[in-house]
Structure formats: structure tokens, C-alpha cells
Design brief:
Low-confidence stretches: 1-8
Strand content: 15-25%
Oligomer: single chain
Strand order of the largest sheet: 13-14-15-16-17-18-12-19
Bound molecules: FE2/S2 (inorganic) cluster, fe (ii) ion
CATH architecture of the largest domain: Alpha-Beta Complex
Number of domains: 2
CATH superfamily of the largest domain: Naphthalene 1,2-dioxygenase Alpha Subunit, Chain A, domain 1
Largest sheet: 8 strands, mixed
Helix content: 25-40%
CATH class of the largest domain: Alpha Beta
CATH topology of the largest domain: Naphthalene 1,2-dioxygenase Alpha Subunit, Chain A, domain 1
Radius of gyration: 24 Å
Number of helices: 15
Number of strands: 20
Length: 463
């Protein structure tokens, strides 16, 4: 096992990620590293904490826990959020109890009363009541001493992000090009379709990396190769990264083939349907929509044999768009060039992934669980565009990692993650060998992680 922790972080450039590299496994395995993440990573990045639909009304709050920190996010006005550290300044009781077996705590309040001695705070975080305040001989007159500790909060795409660093860069700067490329998808207009979570036995990075590349499809989801090729490119955008479907043979490229809605192998009128249906049904009714699958099922009747791939794709999208319009779901205008640039799936540093379509998104987030680097909180949820008023009511459901709960494809992913965590500990493991074309999202992640952590290493493989 390579363990050269003292090697300083290399200043890798984007183009270096296309070279054969290796990164250290210490971030996945070391307790000391997990401890340091609490200081050097989580309080220094924008954390995706929740979605706006979690707190629709004024006074609604939701908690977000990351490592030892807990944050309360409150909607204090129709279009204004505040976030605070979830702790009472008196003697440190959590203001909102956050038990480990609950994914997040939600509620609605006019003010927050600490359960220990009753100190009280309004939605602006100001202290409004202290029993026997005079006992402190005037020293609690300073408002900053007795108010809640504020945390930066902002939103993008309907997600709520928090940052514990008071000097952090603005969220849009942190997101960089992600905003330009993904904003056309209008994720803020999508709503939860389902959301599930589990406590899973691997590091949070081992878990999120299982969803960073389609290179594993042939080996892990071999049933899918019957329907399509899963060769993919991957590339960095600052801290973040994207992957998209690619062709081993460049002459096969079509302008829309990089995303999940694409033609399969053989007659595209048939394979497009088979691929969309298979994706939809085996990825827990996500990664497509009922409208898209139904429209794809009609392609063989609506188009003559021999229709070129691009025409089949255009027809499919046009008829699905019309079907959705008829039920009140309006598609955003996203040009083929924009779709192509947006690719298949994004990893937003450090722990958010989004696999997007025009009317849906399949998303993951992973977080540490307790102090154990071998455990994580795994969450997945599907977003979709619904007709107004028909959005389903969803809550986080704890779901053991089985095919019954998560669908065949996710169960196949679960069937790797735990064993990757164990395998990386082998003294016979000579170090990682990520794919320079298809797994750049992962090497890019390690490059930036190493920068935040000030340790860990990425090296070029010797030829
Ligand atoms: S710890 Fe909150 S009032 Fe005492
Ligand atoms: Fe997978």
C-alpha cells in the first residue's frame, strides 16, 4: 500500500489529468484524515444542505449535519433564508436535537427555545430571553455574545448551500462554470420524486466515487451493455467535473449522445425505447421519466425503418415535449449544443452528484457517519418536473441497500462499494490506476481534496 503522505500536493494542471496518474488511498482509510476533514474540508466548502422545497413556508427550518457540525437553516421571509450553527450559546446544548437515526429534522417555529434553560432566539438569531440575566452583571448585554452563530447560506438550482467559513468565496464563484452549463436545466423547477438514505459501510468518498464514471457499467451493470455503449469522457471544471457518453469511434458521435437520453445499439427506433425503459425501471424509476419512456415506445410505429439516429432522437424529444406540455409540464429550452456540453453527470465538489435530463435529475450525496472512515451516510433522490399542484409529498425514507428498495442498478453499485473499501486496505494493493480518459472526475476530485487537506498525493505513473 502506498503511504507517501509527506509528498507535497502536486500542482496539477487540467491537461495533466489526461495522463496516467495515481492517487493515495489514505483519504479513504485513515481515521486521522477523517478527523482533519472536520477542520480542513467541511467548514471550508459550500455544502449542499437541502432543497428550497424542504422549507416552503416562513418559519420552516431544516437541519443539516456534516461530521460534528450541525446547521439549522430557516426561511425567515418568503425569499430570505438564514442559517445558524445548531447550538445554544449558553452551555452548548443543540438547539434542535438531531438523532443519528434521522436524516434531517424539519419543523416550523416562530422562535427557538433551548430545551435546557429556556434561552430563546427569534428567526433572525437574536436572543430574546435569558432567565435571570442580571446574574451576569451586565456582561450578557453584548448581543453578539448571546445570539446564534450565523452561517453563510445561498441557493442555486433549488438547492440550499451553506458555508461555515465567514470569509468564503460567493457560491457562484465556487460553482464556476457549473452555473453557466447547468442553469438551463432549471433544477429549481423540479421537485423530489423520491428520496432514500442508508448508513453504508464505506468511506463517503468511496461511495460518491461509485457514481462518478460510467467506466464501471460493463463490469458492474453488464445487463445494460446489451442496449448501448458506455464509453465515456470525463473532464474537470475547476473543483467540479463532468462525464458524458463518448464513442470509441469518433465517426459515431451525434450531437446529443453525451447525455442519458440517447439512442441505443441497432435500430434506434427500438433501442432508444429499450434503453430508456431499462434505465427507468432498473434505476428505481429515475434517470428518465414516464413521458420519455412512453414517447420512446411509439417510435417504431411513428417512424419508418432506416430513420437515421439523429432524426429518431429529434422525433422522440419533440413528441415527449408535446406529451408533457399537454399535461402542464413545460420543458426549458436547451439547445443540442448546451445538452452536449452538459454531458451525462456532474460531480460538484466535494460530495454532490447530479445526473441530469431536461425533465429529471438523479442525484446523490454522501457524508461521513460518526468518526469511522469506514462508514458513511448515503443518500439518493430523484427530481422531476411535475404539473403544478401534482408534486408528490416525499420524505427521506431509510432504505437498506437492497435491489427491492433501490432497484437493480443501484443494488449492483452497493455490491461494489463495501468491497472497494475493504480491498483498498490490502497490503498487496500497489496503488490506484484511474482511467485517464474516463475517470478524470475522480482524479480531479483528489487533486482538489489534497489542496484543501494539505496532504495526500497524486503522482504520474512512470511509463
Ligand atoms: S444550554 Fe441553552 S439555555 Fe442553557
Ligand atoms: Fe453504477
Amino acid at each position: 500500500m502506498s503511504n507517501q503522505n509527506d509528498i507535497p500536493v502536486k500542482e496539477l494542471r487540467d491537461e495533466d489529468l489526461a495522463e496516467p496518474l495515481t492517487y493515495s488511498v489514505e483519504p479513504f482509510l485513515s481515521r486521522d484524515y477523517a478527523e482533519k476533514e472536520k477542520d480542513l474540508l467541511w467548514p471550508k466548502v459550500w455544502n449542499m444542505a437541502a432543497r428550497l422545497e424542504d422549507i416552503p413556508e416562513v418559519g420552516d427550518f431544516i437541519t443539516y449535519n456534516i461530521a460534528d457540525d450541525s446547521i439549522v437553516i430557516i426561511r425567515i421571509a418568503e425569499d430570505e433564508l438564514r442559517a445558524y450553527h445548531n447550538v445554544c450559546p449558553h452551555r452548548g446544548r443543540q438547539l434542535v436535537n438531531t438523532p443519528d437515526d434521522v436524516n434531517c429534522v424539519k419543523g416550523r417555529k416562530k422562535n427557538f427555545v433551548c430545551g435546557f434553560h429556556g434561552w430563546t432566539y427569534n428567526l433572525e438569531g437574536e436572543n430574546t430571553y435569558i432567565l435571570d440575566k442580571d446574574d451576569w452583571k451586565g456582561s450578557l448585554e453584548q448581543k453578539e455574545r448571546v445570539c446564534l452563530s450565523p452561517v453563510k447560506v445561498d441557493t442555486w438550482g433549488g438547492w440550499i448551500y451553506i458555508n461555515m467559513d465567514p470569509d468564503c468565496e460567493p457560491l457562484l464563484e465556487f460553482l464556476g462554470e457549473v452555473d453557466r452549463i447547468l442553469s438551463p436545466y432549471q433544477f429549481e423547477k423540479m421537485r423530489y420524486k423520491w428520496r432514500q438514505w442508508a448508513i453504508y459501510p464505506c468511506n463517503w468518498k468511496t461511495a460518491i466515487e461509485a457514481f462518478m464514471e460510467p467506466y464501471h457499467v460493463a463490469g458492474t451493470h453488464s445487463q445494460l451493455t446489451k442496449y448501448g455503449q458506455f464509453y465515456a469522457y470525463s473532464k474537470p471544471y475547476g473543483l467540479h467535473g463532468v462525464s458524458g457518453f463518448d464513442e470509441r469511434d469518433a465517426s459515431q458521435k451525434t450531437s446529443q449522445s453525451s447525455g442519458v437520453a440517447r439512442a441505443g445499439l441497432g435500430d434506434p427506433r427500438i433501442s432508444t425505447y429499450e434503453l430508456a425503459k431499462e434505465n427507468y425501471e432498473t434505476v428505481n424509476y429515475a434517470a428518465s421519466t414516464e413521458t420519455l419512456v412512453n414517447a420512446a415506445s411509439r417510435l417504431k410505429d411513428e417512424l419508418p425503418e432506416g430513420t437515421p439516429v439523429q432524426e429518431v432522437m429529434n422525433h422522440w424529444m419533440k413528441s415527449a415535449k408535446a406529451d408533457d406540455a399537454a399535461r402542464g409540464v413545460v420543458w426549458p429550452e436547451i439547445t443540442p449544443e448546451q445538452q452536449s456540453e452538459a454531458g451525462l453527470a456532474w460531480s460538484l465538489f466535494p460530495n454532490q452528484t447530479i445526473l441530469q435530463g431536461v425533465t429529471f435529475a438523479l442525484c446523490y450525496r454522501t457524508r461521513p457517519y460518526g468518526d469511522d472512515p469506514n462508514m458513511c451516510i448515503f443518500e439518493s433522490y430523484a427530481l422531476e418536473r411535475f404539473p403544478e399542484g401534482e408534486e408528490p409529498d416525499t420524505e427521506w425514507v431509510y432504505a437498506e441497500p437492497t435491489a427491492e428498495n433501490w432497484g437493480k442498478v443501484l443494488a449492483q453499485d452497493f455490491a461494489n462499494m463495501e468491497w472497494v473499501q475493504k480491498g483498498m486496505k490490502s497490503r498487496g494493493f500497489r496503488g490506484t490506476l484511474p482511467n485517464p480518459h474516463q475517470e478524470q472526475k475522480i482524479t480531479n476530485f483528489h487533486r482538489h481534496l489534497a489542496t484543501y487537506m494539505g496532504k495526500g498525493h497524486i503522482d504520474f505513473l512512470e511509463k
